[in-house]
Amino acid sequence: MTDTDAATSDGERSYEVAVVGGGPAGLSTALYTTRLGHDTVVVDRGGGRAAMMLDTHNVIGVTEEVSGNEFLQTAREQVESYGATFERGSVTGVERVESGGDGGGTENGDVAFRVETDGENTFRVDRVVLAMGFSDVRPDPPLPRTGRGLHWCLHCDAYMFVDEPVFVMGTGESAAHVAMIMLNFTDEVDLLLRGGDPEWSEETDEQLRAHPVDVIETEISGVNRGDDGWLESFEFEDGTVREYRGGFPMYGSDYHAELVDALGCARNEDGTVSVDEKGRTSVEGVFAVGDLTPGHNQIPVAMGEGADTGIAIHYDLRTYPKSLEQIRAEGEVDAGDVPGLSPALREAAQAFRAGSDD
Question: Any idea where the FAD/NAD(P)-binding domain is (predicted)?
Fold first, then answer.
């Protein structure tokens, strides 16, 4: 445990956990670490894929009319009410420092890090959670509006296009496969190459040609929208006009991995961070969750990863029970030394309980 009002000998604030990124995965991690008694700071620059959502899909208990920004704001307020600290900005650097005493966030940490932000704040922490996600690579304009005909999540939005004409943009393997997958929802699927050459394999080409997907080679020259802002049709350079309700660009992901690489965390061939089932990276004390890691890029999946990682960090850092080795070396636990959380978190928990009782 640590007291976030205290500072190291260098005047830096100390926490047990720093979460870099305030999306669903990072906020879920912070929720668990905070409620499990670990002083946690979340550094969030704002934005992100979840913030782009006009509507929230596939999250049990959250109705569709809730926007991504509303979803995230509620989550931030919830986590903050438990005692977490929020810093608006970006983390510019994380470095390993000497653990123990003033060198780390707590007496439980066998590793420690210094976290620096673009707001010129620095923290000493025991565990770092990387939750910066990625940005979808956008195709060149002309394009419809995101959420009004341009959609980034097949598993979230395919349901919206049952029996509607749909496009898929791209020239790679993923574009070809998504086009075929969309035949589960509609019988009108076009694969738009936009003047590019197909890059998928011969096997995929044979498979694609065996499905009723129209491959359109011509580049888009214009977009037509309805009064509600939704896509109605694309105009093509050959003079044709094709109607669509919406579709999916498949051009890959731009991972926000500068800190990942600076810390030396191993990455997979697809660019994701290599982690175990608890979010541990190849660097001791560093975890990664959410869209940075392999798996489905879904809010409920990210939240589950955050929960698993938060619990794993709790097991790493919790003060009690003391091991037999510690008891034999240091003696029994004195009643005056419990509970094992900081004064700041005790105060936050008492305030939260008082608010719940009102």
Answer: 15-306
Query: Which tokens hold the place of 203?
Result: 């096997």
Check residue 53 and give its pLDDT.
Answer: 80
Residue percentage of the chain with pLDDT more than 90: 82
10, 144, 20, 29: which is closest to 75 by C-alpha?
Answer: 29
User: Considering only CA atoms, which of 149, 323, 298, 114 is closest in space to residue 220?
Assistant: 149
Please tell me the distance from the alpha carbon of residue 199 to that of residue 194, in angstroms, as a whole number: 13
* SS3 of residue 203 by DSSP: helix
Q: What is the pLDDT of residue 8?
A: 53
Residue 132 to residue 321: CA distance in whole angstroms: 33
State the DSSP string of 123-189: EEESEEEE---EEEPPPPSS-PPBTTTB-S-HHHHGGGGTTS-EEEE-SSHHHHHHHHHGGGT-S-E
Contact status, residue 19 vs residue 41, Cβ threshold 8 Å: yes
What are the pLDDT digits (tens) for 279-328?
Answer: 999 999 999 999 999 999 999 999 999 999 999 999 999 999 999 999 99
Q: How far apart are CA 206 and CA 51, in angstroms?
A: 39
Q: Closest by alpha carbon to 95, among 111, 119, 110? A: 111
Helix (DSSP H) and strand (DSSP E) numbers for the chain: 9, 18
**Interatomic CA distance for residues 150 and 248, integer angstroms:** 6
Structural domains in the chain, CATH included, are 13-134+253-357 (3.50.50.60), 138-249 (3.50.50.60)
Under 8 Å between Cβ of 88 and 44: yes
Give CA–CA dist 19/25, Å, rounded.
10
pTM score, two decimals?
0.91
Q: How confident is the model at residue 219 (pLDDT cuts 50, 70, 90)?
A: very high
Q: Which residues of 5-16 are buried (b: 16+ CB within 10 A; e: fewer)?
A: eeebeeebbbbb
CA–CA gap between residue 308 and residue 32 (Å, rounded): 9
* Rounded-to-integer distance, Cα 347 and Cα 209, Å: 64
